Amino acid sequence: MRRYEEDIWSEIAKFLDGKSLVKLAATNRWFRRVIMDDTIWKFVSLRDLQVPPPPSLVAYRWSKLYTSAFDGSHSFMFHQQEKHIDWMRIGAFSLDSSLALLAERLSFPKKIRKEDTVENMLQSHGCCMLDNVKSGIWIADLQLVRCPVCDLNTCDGTMQTLDARHIELFLCEGYQNGSWEYQLIGSHDIKKRADGAAGAIFDFTHLKGSSTSAVFDYPSWIGRQNDWQPKAKIAPHAVAVNTNLQDNEGLHVKYHTMRAGSDGEVVAIRISQQLL
Questions:
Q1: CB neighbours (10 Å) of residue 124?
Q2: 268 and 211, same structural domain?
Q3: Which ranges of the chain have pLDDT less than 70?
Q4: Which of 119, 99, 121 has its CA nearest to residue 108?
Q5: In Å, what is the CA distance from 231 to each residue of 31, 108, 220, 275?
Q6: Which of 14, 38, 67 marks a domain boundary?
Q7: Any idea of the CA torsion for 178, 170, 152, 186, to the nearest 10 degrees?
Q8: 96 lies in which domain range?
């Protein structure tokens, strides 16, 4: 009979949100044992993040991953708080492979030739390839920060950043103690008027798939020309942002990544733009 009751409550729990689950688990020891079962939290996490199961096992309990994803935290809460202005959560997407494409535009040539350096790829295509990326679920935010964080002394304005991280990042000791840091992997100037400040991250293996096509249909989501509010698009294997711009002289674009140790996998990505 008790096993039957556990099965019933396990199924009921799958219809509750995270806060309700925590409250139910706090009622007594029996409910805590039933509700804190990790299979329940995995189901709820994937449901609320709207992503498929990751291709490999996760390193932390799903209850902790759920908290990390939904407690309202973002990367600038832990480092460079004084630079932060505002942010919005975009959503979650999946990287099934270790190869990602980072882009500063929402359209590029059908054939992308991998150059010998990131800088050359950025100059010729407005995008670059990134390998050894940690597969799994990624969380994407749009950040607005003060420009001094980007080291351009001539600018006292703001900078837009597409900020993506692996779902496990905030739980990792290397991130918490500050030993993992963002490293600049490429930058360049767009020395002409830019209609918008855009950034995108794609799982390269799904670049031409139907699941990514909604991102490339950018006229449907970037807003009208006189709409200056930032817009974002999330897809199963990609994320993109765009902010329409008024008259300008171009953009300065920077790409940063964070690795899990000096030679570890890429666990966080930032694409930042500021006006020249």
A1: 14
A2: yes
A3: 1-5, 109-116, 147-156
A4: 121
A5: 42, 20, 11, 18
A6: 67
A7: 100
A8: 80-275
